[in-house]
Amino acid sequence: MKKLFSKYTFPILAACSMSLFTACDKDFAEINTNPNAVSVPTTAYIFSKALYDGAANSGNKGSLLFGLMQYTTSYNDVEGFGSKYTASQVNATGGVFTNSYPTQINEIGEVIKAVKDDPTKVNQYAMARIWRVYCFSRLTDLYGDIPYSEAGQGYNLSIFQPKYDAQSAIYADMLKELEASATALTTSNTSTFGNSDLIYQGNVTKWKKFAYSLMLRLGMRLTKVDAASAQSWVTKAIAGGVIRDYADIAKMSYTSGGQNINKNPIAWQLLNDNYLRADGINNTEGGKYQDVFINSLKANNDPRLGVLSVVYVNGTASSDESIQKGMPATINGTKPADFVTFSEPKQTTVLKVDAPLLLFTVAESNFLLAEAALRGWYSAETASSLYETGIRAAMQQWDLISGTTGTIAQARIDSYVAAHALKTSSSVAVQTEQIYNQVWVGLFPDAQEVYNNYRRTGYPALTPNVYPGNATGGKIFRRFLYPVLEQTLNRASYNEAVQRQGTDDLLTKVWWDK
């Protein structure tokens, strides 16, 4: 065969050369065109993919942030990195960065490029810009300075080593983008993504509320670093109208069948990491709820305990609140003999793959508004009433996740609210702590947003785990590390970011955390 190839290659190539402009180019374009490829992309489909990927990469931090916020832990040092800060696993924090740019950031950028100059698609343009802010906000909040203004421009502008923008500049632009997009959205124009919009199915009014709700979230993020700007943006968001009704909750819907991209990303990752066997024993990575979380729920007689957790008794899941028990994060590498007795996420709620992923809720709006009221930035309602509404909303939203009505009995909600009233006669600090203790439970399983608020407010006042061989000296880390490859492939930009922001270290604070 080798001899035959050698024998006939030259004559064939020579013949082709002699007839270069005749026979050999006949049907060349047709032969080299993939009949299954799309020459003109369908923008609506790319938008759907950007939504899926943005939601998935926001949710897929699994054991890392779940462990860091002391919801879960593992006896396995690798899986338990988030709760143990084990030095050998620190580079795992670069995964969100690595996964974000080629997917959601690139995809939403292509959507914006396709619609921005078309005056008939003003709503599509605004919605895409809002989603781009959502994606970038989740990314910069984890890393600080990141590629932003030049991100996703490799194909369009041949920018293969994008600069890292300062987080202060990123925040300024994101807030400007939200304001411009919310203003541009109009019911007089019918250009939406329709059913390809997996969040609101093209509802312009709801997208506007989502934009102002994100403005409220990001504006409040500035309280430590620039209180005046924080107040200005929070006030503007409230005036624009934020999410206050269940029908307006920003959520991604999923199914139990089909491809994995169609499944709730938090539930799907938790299941695959640990809980597919559903017997309390054969947990692949050794994961269970952490004792800090379960002990808090039990101590506060929180009716969510039986909604979120189960203990397997003789192979059967039990939600009996009296037997729920969290596993200590200090267990050192060996599976405990009583492993089966520890609580783990419930299959019909937290692990429900066709449950919606809640991106911005009524509960979050009310908790943020309660803080704004405490600061004197909002006076139409009291901090106490907003705080109470936030608690009720956080409990009632489990109806959306479970797919049932009355998941938590109204009487138990009333009893809990009465027992945890805001201490209005105490200091602002005491009341703020109460609010963000409720955020810790009420926004679960959105561990990243809880982590963001923990860094900003210091609440809940979690006690770090001083574990042998940890990477932080027994401190809860303040940011994620850039991927190692950035030091090789984008060294100049990486070095500039590190010089400006500080050492690429887990304890270096991002701009708004300083």
UniProtKB/TrEMBL annotation:
Presence of the UniProt keyword Endoplasmic reticulum in the record: no
Top-level taxon of the source organism: Bacteria
Presence of keyword Lipoprotein: yes
Signal sequence residues: 1-23
UniProtKB keywords: Lipoprotein, Signal
Protein name: SusD/RagB family nutrient-binding outer membrane lipoprotein
Source organism of this protein record: Arcicella rigui
